[in-house]
């Protein structure tokens, strides 16, 4: 008799790939997967080696109290772990390698947690990250057979692809969070605009400046600068042919009304790898420094916890305070190439590889001085 084709149905694969970074989409997939497997529930658990709590656990349809009990009491002692990578393992196979005393304890454990019959697979979508996929049937239901095993085995390659996408998204989100924290501590806001001044992306600092009209405003989602000369300069930059723009960009100084200190707006063209927003047109990245929010790092204070020379500490402090490397070089009276050489040495000495990592390290090791209100008014005047 020919083996039954257990190729996953299109609707199940569509549910899996519908949103690899979306919790609601994963929950919808797990419900569909449980139905496809004839299981009482399907579970996805993400964890890292050595941790005593999961990073994420999804088990749609499960009792929340029971799920919380698993995390608090049973996760660290879960016996059904460490399965061979990408190999589907049944509960029966797992028990066959255990002593009789262990089997009784495991059965008691499972009756309090997942269920009495399980198929599982472990997938490592990234170094040190493990995804445990489990389907379970409750007490009294028959064990999974060859058909269910074949169905799960057919899903493993698709699960591996989707979980790699999830892991990459988790890493990207973590890196973005580090960068956001670093920019926020330095008082930098970020906007992306097109050449019609339409605001495509903005962060919290930029939004706050626009909301209080502190040098920036938005009319019908189009950016305006409060200082006429700076706004005209931005307009000239926007009107220039994309190929004629200075790749290094420019820096504009905007004087807000009232007691707010001047705001520096660094403008630089960017070309997205996939120009989905603006066809083939360039976008502009604007970095806005809000002195009222910026922390101040002192170069001398950096030399205590970090093995830096005076020149390297000065460059590090300047960048932690929100300056670009080119701006730091100009203010410190050194060439841009010298500043780049200092930055390479700083990366080597601190074990970092990117500016966001360096800023996060500085914020962790060195306390920053917040500018006093009187200082801000003095600078504004």
From TrEMBL:
UniProt xrefs under Gene3D superfamilies: Winged helix-like DNA-binding domain superfamily/Winged helix DNA-binding domain
Matching InterPro entries: Sig_transdc_resp-reg_C-effctor, Tscrpt_reg_LuxR_C, WH-like_DNA-bd_sf
Residue ranges annotated for the HTH luxR-type domain, each copy included: 305-362
One Gene Ontology term of the molecular function aspect: DNA binding
One BP term from GO: regulation of DNA-templated transcription
SUPFAM superfamilies in alphabetical order: C-terminal effector domain of the bipartite response regulators
Protein name listed in UniProt: LuxR family transcriptional regulator
Upper taxonomic lineage: Bacteria, Pseudomonadati, Pseudomonadota, Alphaproteobacteria, Sphingomonadales
